[in-house]
From TrEMBL:
InterPro entries: SCO6880-like. This is Integral membrane protein.
Length: 411
């Protein structure tokens, strides 16, 4: 982030704060604005649909401004640390094929993969064990299981991974006009993406209750492990905060204060597939790690790479005219750009992607500890450079939720 961009963002944020545009109070909003989520989620609405292939409920987030539909899939990823290297490489190749499929489908506008780690298993574990317990089991076994359930919330963390795909139903040859047909078209597009072999299993399509839980629990982490009945009657606006304040480096909302960091630079060297493990390790605070994707079509990807090659050579030439030779880093940039262009000429695709991490503390007093925990996790990756989302904390916070907002997707 350049100094000019930093100070321009700071000036814009101060102007917004002066007119209270960075504060949200739902009870003070007139109808119908009180029925909307704050910020980038204001144009979204939740639709309860039925998937004809499975006969089950599906939650679809509709962006009323752009017409895009976002469908979320709950995942159950398998561990890769104990897997053979060949199996991991095969999963990476399969994921590359999924990205290739996105680039050739004009209706797929973007996707994001989020992993949320919440300390403690809460009441949900007790409910699950109670439902599975055999009433005829030995008394000793029941006592041991009960003791494990009692102590587990203090020793474990629950992991909730999901993938959200944003679809534009109007991009099809015969664009549907009815809302029900648009939802059906979006479901058909998402069903065409095959995730088998990517190292993860599909648990199910997220229902409207699942989406309410994920969004509401992000603003108030205390309700994450509540029962489904507590979310069934919530309206979409009630899933958001009652009050929120978008600060320069933090975002205060119901039940917590969050800080969000965004990707600044990836290492220039090849990295291992386990580079993100420090960010995924459980800690004291709830954490969300989001990878957002937008796969460029072949023409746009070629133009981007050609522009990168031209800029790299121009920077090297300008430095050589002043100092007599170009920097080695500039030469390496040019080589990488040319290598990427050669790979694309061989059939590879260009993907625009970014990484975002959000950590939520329960109070302002815990915020320094949460920030320190995040800083240590980023440093432990040994190469990934991240920075706070200055003046955009609310947007970065929402980008990790299934709200239909992807910062890389163009309207």
């Amino acid at each position: 982030m350049s100094a000019l961009a930093y100070y321009w963002a700071k000036l814009s944020w101060r102007r917004a704060a002066r007119i209270d545009a960075t504060s949200y109070r739902r009870v003070l909003l007139p109808h119908p604005y009180a029925l909307d989520l704050p910020g980038v989620g204001a144009s979204s609405t939740l639709i309860r649909a039925y998937d004809p292939t499975t006969g089950k409920r599906v939650g679809v987030v509709h962006d009323r401004a752009s017409g895009h539909m976002t469908i979320t899939t709950l995942l159950a990823p398998g561990g890769s640390l104990m897997a053979p290297t060949g199996a991991v490489q095969s999963s990476l190749r399969t994921w590359s094929s999924v990205l290739d499929a996105m680039s050739t489908d004009d209706q797929v506008k973007g996707a994001s993969v989020t992993i949320q780690i919440t300390p403690g298993a809460g009441e949900a574990l007790g409910d699950d064990v109670q439902a599975r317990q055999d009433p005829d089991a030995p008394r000793l076994a029941k006592r041991i299981v009960s003791e494990l359930v009692r102590t587990t919330p203090h020793a474990t963390a629950s992991v909730a991974p999901w993938m959200s795909v944003t679809v534009d139903p109007a991009a099809s040859a015969n664009a549907p006009t009815e809302l029900s047909d648009q939802v059906a078209e979006a479901l058909k597009v998402v069903d065409s993406l095959d995730l088998s072999g990517t190292g993860t299993d599909i648990e199910r399509r997220a229902t409207d209750v699942d989406l309410r839980r994920l969004v509401r629990a992000a603003y108030d982490p205390a309700v994450f492990n509540a029962r489904d009945q507590e979310f069934e009657d919530l309206s979409w606006s009630e899933c958001g905060p009652i009050a929120a304040d978008d600060g320069w480096e933090e975002y205060a909302h119901d039940g917590g204060v969050s800080i969000s960091w965004v990707l600044r630079e990836m290492p220039r060297r090849p990295i291992a597939y386990s580079v993100l493990l420090p960010l995924l390790a459980p800690g004291r605070f709830q954490r969300r790690i989001t990878l957002a994707y937008r796969v460029l079509d072949p023409h746009e990807g070629e133009a981007v790479l050609e522009r990168e090659i031209s800029h790299a050579h121009q920077r090297a030439q300008a430095t050589a005219e002043v100092k007599g030779r170009a920097k080695w880093s500039q030469r390496a940039d040019a080589q990488r750009a040319e290598q990427a262009a050669a790979q694309m000429a061989g059939g590879s695709q260009v993907a625009d992607w970014t990484l975002m991490v959000t950590v939520t503390a329960r109070s302002t007093a815990e915020l320094p500890a949460a920030r320190q925990e995040l800083e240590r996790a980023v440093k432990a990756t040994r190469g990934i450079r991240m920075r706070p989302a200055y003046g955009a904390q609310a947007a970065a916070f929402a980008a990790g939720l299934p709200l239909g907002y992807n910062p890389l997707v163009k309207d």
